UniProtKB/TrEMBL annotation:
The lineage of its organism: unclassified sequences, metagenomes, ecological metagenomes. Keywords: Membrane, Transmembrane, Transmembrane helix. The chain crosses the membrane at residues 20-44, 56-74, 86-110, 153-172. This is Uncharacterized protein. It comes from marine metagenome.
Amino acid sequence: MIRTVLAGLRSAGESEPPWASWTTSAATSVVVATGLFSLLSTASGLADMLGNGDDTVLLLTLGGPAGLAAMLLLSRIRPAERIRDADVLGGATSCLLLLVGMVAVLHLLIGTTGSVVDAVTDATAALTTTALGAVTPDSADHGGRFLRAGSQWIGGLGALMVAVAVLPFFGAEREFADRSRLHGRRPMAPNQRTAVRNILYVHGAVSLG
């Protein structure tokens, strides 16, 4: 699934040469991080309208252009002939680091905290599912609370994606992927596309429940 997405990205022109594997992976990580930032910022801005609404304009102003920038960059990415395993892992790591920085800046801008250290700590804790954040948003700060909760939700989903749909498929034989059909069982991850779909189903159902 990961390679299909990366290698199947639309090129800017059919006659243009393909990008290197690491270049495509790096650009894709920027697109994903920016897109998730847009989603978090926009959703937090809408949630802030349920409270005092003092950060709504800022959050929506940041979220909208970020989403447009992500779509524009996505349209400019050229596929690589082959995506290396190491570049997939490097891209995922880069995406996490970029998103941590973006969420930390967002916490500072909306006043959830005035400390850079606390903002980075909370963003890191949320996106790495450690739940050891240093920031406690005010009860009336709906935007800040949603930003923190949304970051934790995305962090949990991302961790599942990496653990089930990325790392098990590393190596020549993909020997760690859950593909066994012994005794009539249905595997969780017969391939990466199905793994991603199953994770979305499970994570979404648990979140709604």
